[in-house]
């Protein structure tokens, strides 16, 4: 069953039934100021950091779900309704929600009145616009009452949800003209406030939640709306809100627009006050002035469209499969940008208070984003590297507001450092900007300990070399990418976090996934050394990589697939000898991508084993058989019920590793089968089962051993977005930036006749046409660059600012 449809021309997903199986959300904002908005108007807004600078309140895990947001109530005689259906939930005559590129539009109608709401955040602006257009489509005069509503968060979202003994006494607001200002804690240590404005005069307002709603009512039945008149309350403590009341009279056919703005202001210490206890409103007024007419709003909205035209214009394909085109051209790239902005902080599954920016996560997010705004990618790489230590280890996460590493989610995850080599080399290949390697980047955010960025990569590489275990394989530390495989944790206490507990200090557990990862990024490191003339370092590093390859062949091969690890006791994990968890996806992916034992047939054999044991109707599960009981020596992985999350779930982040490994042995049909099994646009028809948005990837789909295989969770913020984009564009479609040019090496289903890609690269436009007359999966036979035949499949860096035409023929 479907709940809407794609509108590719507008780059929108159009939801036509508000009762989606889960709230289907979108993100507004691109730089500093962000909102989450669901298909019924739920969600919240924050400045930079969803934990420390939250403007509006949101209650996670609420009943009913997704209650609270930026709401409008329209009272038309005795009928009250909302353009986005919620919160009032009056059955509408029509409903539509269009989630587009950083904007959302609602259109609802009831009893001859149509209301449209456009929500977006203008570029470079610290405020959200909500343009509300109300039209009388009936033949009678309509006298309507419009109420707006937002609920303020007292800035620190965690404290706001827990510290009621204090917070119920601190709330403060001011109201002037049609603007409601939220100034809690402004008089002491905060130099910022928020406001909610509308560009028309108002007939009243409310700022005290209980007065507006009534203590025993929900958002669906506010007292004030039922009474049809505001109480003009000024909040003192308790829960400050902002609601405007506007009387709207419309003749038949008449339409009126109102521009609401939810804004954020920072003032300097000496300019906080207009007069005693009255905040300085000048900056807010300037912001309001900027967008106080529909014309000004239209210009800003158009700028946003042009911005996205530009970003999405850098990679654009035309194939014979519209589901593929809409993923690659629109939604997957869009999700990569959102993931880059949010890391794992704020979604409808991440509460915005738990996780900041992850070291490994942020590095991986970059590979789906670097082509869009390389300058921001560069800045991000430096931010991440600044939280590293001299020995290559690093904090597992940092907070976006301070950019400082913290140990809340532990440290000592031994895969972490290697991802820095991935992000850096992908950045340089995309841009050619080797100067990043010379930039002085601090260790542990201490500028007196800054070293050239290259030294950070070297530290990353040698962190593995210096931390090998009994089989000369990498020590796993607290965990590797699979942070639920906690081999040194041994936790019996339910109050301990698996992420920070390590009860065995002498842990010698080793990871085959890190081994494969090290070979892949070790080779990248060597290649980079050669590019910049560090030849003896390249030779030295090559020895370490060779040793690792040998160690994997000797101690990491189980006969039909790669082992996953050696546990604390030196026992095999992910072996046919094990009763459960005989085979894992990660080591097949990474040792396959590393091509370890490819000549001996290891890679092909292990991928056949993946197909046989891990592949199922909805994707590739993480491990099989899933664990049915708690293994204290394995940790969190075995806490999940079979088929969910890291225990036999389809962890969509790692499926592309197998896709890429499949392309290494030329199996384009298999690679694409795996791609289309988890790409959301292919799952639209099973939305009822899939549950989450059909336009973005989720972290996990329940696996074959689950109670409900195919049901998905944790949409939006996951490394899944960038890895799938990377796999489809660079390995399956096979167009890959390299130091010397664009490498073309597709690995596609053999029945494809070809495809086209427009690729903006190093300032030039490459119009690439791939032809597949012999129905092969892989193999470049002929290449023409601007009509001239060449003998390399690396198309060189071509003249900037002009169009180039590349024709490629695949064949045997
Ligand atoms: C989840 C992981 C996540 C980790 C860190 C675990 O409970 O299963 O997917 O990475 O927490 O927050
Ligand atoms: C989600 C985390 O954000 C990521 O860092 C981790 O690698 C995966 N879960 C797998 O456990």
TrEMBL record:
Domain Glycosyl hydrolase 94 catalytic per the UniProt entry, residue ranges: 307-734
CDD domains, per the entry: GH94N_CBP_like
Single Gene Ontology BP annotation: carbohydrate metabolic process
Superkingdom: Bacteria
UniProt source species: Lutibacter maritimus
A family per Pfam: GH94_b-supersand
Gene3D superfamilies hit by this protein: 1.50.10.10, Glycoside hydrolase, family 65, N-terminal domain (2.70.98.40), Maltose phosphorylase, domain 3 (2.60.420.10), mpn423 like domain (1.20.890.20)
Positions of the Glycosyl hydrolase 94 supersandwich domain: 11-292
Tagged with keyword Methyltransferase: no
Entry keywords, A to Z: Glycosyltransferase, Transferase
Record SMART domains: CBM_X
Keyword Phosphoprotein recorded: no
Protein name: Cellobiose phosphorylase
Stored PANTHER family: CELLOBIONIC ACID PHOSPHORYLASE, CELLOBIONIC ACID PHOSPHORYLASE-RELATED
InterPro entries documented for this protein: 6-hairpin_glycosidase_sf (IPR008928), 6hp_glycosidase-like_sf (IPR012341), Gal_mutarotase_sf_dom (IPR011013), GH65_N (IPR037018), GH94_catalytic (IPR033432), GH94_Enzymes (IPR052047), GH94N_CBP (IPR037825), Glyco_hydrolase_94_b-supersand (IPR010383)
An example molecular function term from Gene Ontology annotations: glycosyltransferase activity
Annotated signal peptide: none
Residues in coiled coil: none
């Amino acid at each position: 069953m479907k709940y809407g449809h794609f509108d590719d021309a507008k780059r929108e997903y159009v939801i036509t039934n508000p009762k989606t199986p889960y709230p289907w959300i979108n993100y507004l904002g691109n730089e500093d100021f962000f909102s989450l908005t669901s298909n019924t108007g739920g969600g919240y807004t924050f400045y930079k950091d969803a934990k420390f600078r939250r403007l509006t309140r949101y209650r996670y895990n609420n009943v009913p779900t997704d209650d609270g947001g930026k709401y409008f109530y329209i009272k038309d005689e005795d009928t009250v309704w909302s353009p986005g259906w919620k919160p009032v939930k009056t059955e509408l005559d029509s409903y539509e929600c269009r989630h587009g590129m950083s904007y959302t539009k609602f259109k609802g109608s009831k009893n001859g009145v149509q209301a449209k709401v456009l929500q977006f955040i203008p570029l470079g602006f610290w405020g959200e616009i909500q343009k509300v257009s109300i039209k009388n489509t009936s033949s009678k005069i309509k006298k309507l009452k419009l109420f707006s509503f937002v609920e303020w968060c007292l800035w620190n979202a965690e404290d706001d949800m827990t510290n009621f003994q204090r917070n119920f006494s601190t709330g403060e607001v001011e109201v002037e003209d049609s603007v409601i200002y939220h100034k809690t804690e402004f008089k002491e240590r905060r130099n910022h406030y928020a406001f909610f404005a509308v560009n028309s005069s108002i007939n009243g307002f409310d700022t005290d939640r209980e007065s507006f709603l009534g203590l025993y009512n929900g958002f669906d039945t506010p007292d004030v709306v039922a009474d049809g008149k505001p109480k003009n309350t000024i909040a003192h403590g308790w829960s400050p809100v902002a609601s405007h009341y506007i009387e709207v009279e419309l003749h038949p056919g008449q339409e009126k627009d109102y521009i609401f703005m939810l804004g954020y202001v920072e003032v300097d210490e000496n300019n906080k006050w207009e007069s005693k206890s009255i905040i300085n409103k000048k900056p807010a007024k300037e912001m309001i002035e900027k967008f106080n007419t529909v014309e000004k709003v239209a210009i800003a909205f158009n700028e946003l469209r042009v911005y996205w035209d530009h970003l999405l214009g850098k990679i654009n394909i035309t194939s014979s499969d519209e589901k593929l085109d809409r993923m690659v051209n629109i939604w997957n790239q869009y999700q990569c940008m959102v993931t880059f902005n949010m890391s794992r902080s704020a979604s409808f599954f991440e509460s915005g208070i738990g996780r900041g920016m992850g070291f490994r996560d942020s590095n991986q997010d970059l590979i789906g984003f670097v082509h869009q705004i390389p300058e921001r990618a560069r800045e991000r790489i430096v931010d991440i590297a600044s939280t590293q230590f001299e020995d290559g280890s690093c904090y597992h996460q940092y907070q976006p507001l301070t950019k400082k590493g913290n140990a809340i989610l532990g440290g000592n995850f031994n895969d972490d450092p290697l991802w820095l080599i991935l992000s850096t080399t992908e950045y340089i290949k995309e841009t050619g900007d080797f100067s990043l390697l010379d930039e002085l980047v601090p260790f542990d955010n201490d500028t007196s300990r800054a070293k050239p960025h290259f030294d950070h990569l070297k530290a990353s590489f040698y962190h593995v070399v210096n931390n090998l275990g009994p089989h000369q394989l990498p020590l796993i530390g607290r965990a590797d990418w699979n942070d639920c495989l906690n081999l040194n944790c041994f936790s019996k206490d339910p109050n301990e976090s698996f992420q920070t507990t390590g009860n065995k200090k002498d842990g010698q557990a080793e990871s085959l996934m890190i081994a494969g990862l090290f070979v892949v990024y070790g080779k990248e490191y060597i290649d980079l050394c050669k590019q910049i003339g560090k030849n003896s370092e390249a030779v030295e590093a090559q020895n370490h990589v060779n040793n690792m390859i040998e160690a994997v062949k000797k101690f990491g091969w189980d006969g039909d697939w790669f082992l996953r690890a050696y546990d604390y006791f030196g026992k095999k994990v992910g072996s046919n000898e094990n009763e459960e968890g005989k085979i894992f996806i990660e080591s097949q992916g990474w040792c396959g991508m590393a091509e370890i034992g490819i000549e001996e047939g290891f890679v092909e054999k292990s991928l056949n084993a993946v197909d046989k044991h891990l592949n199922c109707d909805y994707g590739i599960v993480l491990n099989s058989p899933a664990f049915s009981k708690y293994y204290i020596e394995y940790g969190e992985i075995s806490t999940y019920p079979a088929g969910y999350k890291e225990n036999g779930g389809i962890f969509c982040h790692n499926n592309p590793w197998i896709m890429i490994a499949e392309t290494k042995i030329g199996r384009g049909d298999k690679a694409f089968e795996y791609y289309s099994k988890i790409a959301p646009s292919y799952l639209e028809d099973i939305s009822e089962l899939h549950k989450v948005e059909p336009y973005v990837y989720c972290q996990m789909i329940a696996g074959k051993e689950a109670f409900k295989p195919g049901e998905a969770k944790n949409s939006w913020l996951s490394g899944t977005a960038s890895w799938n984009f990377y796999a489809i564009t660079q390995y399956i479609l096979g167009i890959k930036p390299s130091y010397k040019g664009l490498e073309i090496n597709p690995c596609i289903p053999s029945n494809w006749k070809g495809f086209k890609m427009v690729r903006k690269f190093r300032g030039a436009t490459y119009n690439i046409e791939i032809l597949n007359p012999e129905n092969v999966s892989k193999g470049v036979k002929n290449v023409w660059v601007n009509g001239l035949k060449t003998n390399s499949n690396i198309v060189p860096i071509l003249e900037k600012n002009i169009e180039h035409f590349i024709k490629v023929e695949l064949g045997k």
